Amino acid sequence: MRHFLTLRDLSGKEILNLVNKGLRIKKFQRLYSNRLKNKTMLMFFEKPSLRTRVSFEVAMNQMSGSALYYDLMGSPLTKGKETIEDTAKVISRYCDFLTARVYEHDELKKLASNSTIPVINALSNSDHPCQAIGDLMTIKEKFGKLKGLTLAYYGDGDGNVTHSLMHACSKVGINIYIFCPKQFMPKESFIKESIRFAKENNSKVVIENKPRKIKTDIVYTDTWMSYHINPREKNKRVKIFKSYQINKNLLGDALFMHCLPAQRGYEVTNEVMDGKQSIIFDQAHNRLFSAKSIILWCLR
Length: 300
Description:
Blueprint lengths: L11 H16 L12 E6 L5 H12 L3 E6 L12 H11 L2 E5 L3 H9 L5 E5 L5 H15 L6 E5 L5 H13 L2 E5 L8 H13 L4 E4 L9 E4 L12 H8 L6 H4 L3 E4 L11 H4 L6 H20 L1
Parallel strand pairs: 1-2, 1-3, 3-4, 5-6, 5-8, 6-7, 8-9
Helix pairs in contact: 1-5, 1-11, 2-11, 3-4, 5-6, 5-11, 6-7
């Protein structure tokens, strides 16, 4: 049994194994159709989800398991009538996996430390490792390799997707450039860790506060308005981030990636979203196979 909470805990080799296993599952889906027979996954969600929730539910179903979705908004845990420690111990008696999308990463760690079943991070305030594995799968699929490539990220640097991308890229030898405003820098711990990982893998992590066009293989962005952001902050954020918008000129010859959902006309233009260099829907599709890979990794 292994928990899947953050890519900080995984070696570069483990990350590559997850990527390659996902690609193998995609190619030979029937070989895995009975791998989770009589297995049950409980899914805790504090935040909205489309790709993560559906990909994990379908992954369980396609491997002959079952998934139960539980909205935490009406639970004893959210209402303060039960501790997270007791909740984890009860779930461990019923299910084989727990997938949780929570606000606070520390809550996720409490679930894991009190569970006797694998806990999978479906997104927390600091990390989104499931997204990063699917992203690396897509990059490997398109380029046939990972090491030596360059990814340029534009937008909010202080986000869970950015943090997990920094860990993922630096551990597999992808150069990553982060272009973000000073107010939205990645957390210092992620910067230090990623720079150290990159040195070990002969790659680099570069963070700049003014957007500029560079020679890169991939251009990546995320929404300027995450789920937890107060809608009243929208105008302020648009003003700060408008120069980081991905348009045809900034994209150049690179492939375009976005974790979705996207706000068209804000962080990216329609021309880029719908253009030939956009691989966003291949990226979303691969979330299904990366979910399968992660689930099976947790069982080992």
